[in-house]
Amino acid sequence: MNKKNVISRRATLLLIAAALALTLIGTALLGNSYRFTTEAVMIPGPNGNLTGVLTTPLESEIRGLVVMVHGDGPVNATHDGLYSPWFKGAAAAGFATLSWSKPGLDNSDGNWLGQSMEDRTAEVDAAINWARQSGRTSTERIVLWGASQAGWVLPKVVSSREDVHAIIAVGPAINWLRQGRYNLLSELRHEARNSQEREQAITQSDRTRQLLEHAASYQEYCSSRVDAEPMSEQRWNFVLKNFRSDATEDLLRSSARSIPVHLVIGSHDRNVDVDETEKTYKSIFGPLLSVKRVEGNHSLARPVVEENAAVGLVTGLVWPRALLAPGAIDSYTEFLAKVAAD
Hints:
By secondary structure, the protein is an alpha/beta fold. Helix content is 47%, strand content 16%. It starts with a helix and ends with a helix.
């Protein structure tokens, strides 16, 4: 092991030790700030059982239920603890929260990479039906919370059901391909790539799009060598199944329900063109829409947390709510309280 690696390892160990010490101090000073209980549940899904959690407020009666719809990636029921501030924010407004691990994670049956957006919609339908039938919590008011990729799922659910009372959309995109191009250009700017590198990256992206348009097999995709590090076969097939996703028509259909919609977006989002999202949502939902912009990234985390792993580690251990940009959870709680009051 070279000297640089030794120093890096020592720094990491010191950081972990400091974080643990801060955790003990924070716990002593603040105590348990998560005023909710957590119960493990099993939800019968369209293609097998889904393992999940149901959180309920400790200090108030249950006034409704938030059903969480994940974004892209292998996300479990608690997002490895990152959902705790959202659970707490819902509990503060008197809402329970239902969340489950994607198929293939934490003993949930299936494989999330085999899902279309329609499959994900059927999964949410099954979870709502279970919640209504189980009697575990109040379903007098059902609110859908969805992040990122869930923007293509939420309006499908709402337009097909009469029992959803409100929507909370966190950093949703409108069009899959436009979102991918926006993300590519944003990352290139962030990394200060030169013009030659930019042109090469855009050309590669265009070649990938062409392969998708022609429904290329995984073997054709790999043979094209368009990516230096090709995505897995399951990931390629997932993208192939969903790359035509566009939320516009489903949003228009869902607007016929005339339910309140709360859009929460980060001003430093490099994944999604939040200006396009806000403009589209405003044009469709009009006065039914409320918007909260925060100084956060795509996940609404503070930029310093995303850019500095050390800060993120310590913050996550000592004060998880501070991972998110100021105003994100307060806005969430306030919106739920309004829904409960209506």
